[in-house]
Amino acid sequence: GGTLPHDLVAILQVVKREVPARLGIHVHNDAECAVANSLAAVSEGVEQVQGTINGFGERCGNANLVSIIPSLVLKMGVDCIPEAHLRELRDVSRFVSELANRKPWTSQPYVGDSAFAHKGGMHVSAVLKHPETYEHIDPQAVGNHRRVLVSELSGKSNIVWKAREYGIDLDQATPDSRRILDELKSLEDQGFQFEGAEASFELLMERALGRHRPYFELDAYRVIVEEQHADAPVAEATVRVRVKGTLEHTAASGNGPVNALDHALRKALEEFYPSLKTMQLLDYKVRILDESKGTGAKTRVLVTSGDGEETWGTVGVADNIIEASWQALVDSVEYKLRRDERRGASR
Question: Which residue, 158, 147, 148, 213, is CA-closest to 180?
Fold first, then answer.
């Protein structure tokens, strides 16, 4: 585990001279060299490599087969598994993470969500023309895919790529792409960030193009947190929304103000949109944007939601954490309903 690659090669050369046998290797990751050592061993004639999926193992982990296998097949020409099986690598990695009750490693080589992610505008433009200049392998070879992110570094190429992802026909030369880019940069100047909230960006794009039709309109909401003696505080939310011409007035409690607001909103909408019953709030993150302003600072809220088929992220930014949460919750619900409508499941 603690041996460096050049030392391992020297050791193997001695072992090969002294031991007339077929060799295998089992290394750990104590020096962050388990993958490099395994590949170096194969270069020295070792025929068997032991490791684990995602490198899960004692201490610092074992050699990560999810990195070793594609390196052997795609870079070293070692015919160890069929290419059709290699295309299942990302699914296998995620399945094992699920069994281990661990979140997939976003930056994991080859199979992580960020392994083939591109952000800068000129960078994305080049990727669209010649992907091999920026990607060391075809992402699909390991079951992964290219991701184009939207941020303050984005150019029109990013916008056009994302539009294609969302099924929107957009050209760099049209004013629409400039309008979307200007709106993106304006919102990011206010503290919005869409890298983890692509559902909000899809809605932003549809609004900028005049294609968005709201599924409900807010009349008012109120959130109360009440301390009751020695018991835990009780949060209650009241929501009034107009849905298809009908005013719905509902209330719900929750284990916090945001949870209560989420319950109240969906309670008001589920009669009209039953598919919302499958939707859950999976994760909730808060970021204070300017800590020097103390309690007066702007707040960014990132919400991750899911319905058993897909997960998606939304964002809200406001001076008030409840308002920021409301923005993210509304986007989450609208994205779900928009997606269901496309599939013919909601209406």
Answer: 158
User: For 58, phi and psi rounded to 5 degrees?
Assistant: -65, 160
Phi-psi region of 167 (alpha: psi -120 to 50; beta: other; left: phi over 0): left
Q: Looking at the domain that runs over 216-272, which CATH code has it been given?
A: 3.30.160.740
* pTM score of the predicted model: 0.65
What number of H helices and E strands is found in the chain? 11, 10
Coil, helix or strand at residue 233: coil
Segments making up each domain of the chain, as ranges: 5-99, 117-189, 216-272
25 and 37 Cβ atoms separated by less than 8 Å: yes
The DSSP element (H or E) to which 48 belongs, if any, is strand 48-50
Tens-place pLDDT, residues 169-222:
777 667 777 777 778 778 878 888 887 888 998 898 888 888 888 899 999 999
Angle, CA of 111, 307 and 160, to the nearest 5° = 55
At residue 236, the 3 state secondary structure works out as strand
DSSP, collapsed to helix, strand or coil, labels residue 41 as helix
Confirm if 149 and 143 have CB atoms less than 8 A apart: no
Q: Specify whether the backbone of 221 is left (phi greater than 0), alpha (psi in -120 to 50) or beta.
A: beta
Which of 73, 64, 118, 114 is closest to 93 using CA atoms? 64
Residue 95, pLDDT > 80, answer yes
Q: Which residues, listed in sequence order, are joined to residue 301 by a DSSP beta bridge?
A: 286, 316
The residues, ordered by sequence, that sit 6+ positions from 345 with a Cβ below 8 Å of its Cβ are: 275
187-192 CB contacts, 8 Å cutoff, 24+ apart: 187/317, 188/151, 188/152, 190/298, 190/317, 191/289, 191/298, 191/300, 191/317, 192/300, 192/315, 192/317
For 137-142, which contacts have Cβ atoms below 8 Å and span 24 or more sequence positions? Answer: 137/70, 137/74, 137/75, 137/110, 139/115, 140/87, 141/70, 141/74, 141/83, 141/86, 141/87, 142/70, 142/86, 142/87, 142/89, 142/90, 142/110, 142/111
Token pair for 62: 């074992």
Position 347 scores a pLDDT of 44
Cα–Cα distances in angstroms (integers) from residue 29 to residues 1, 7, 52, 61, in the given order: 5, 15, 11, 5
- Structure tokens that stand for 289 in this block: 């944007």
Q: Cα(37)–Cα(272) distance, rounded to whole angstroms? A: 59
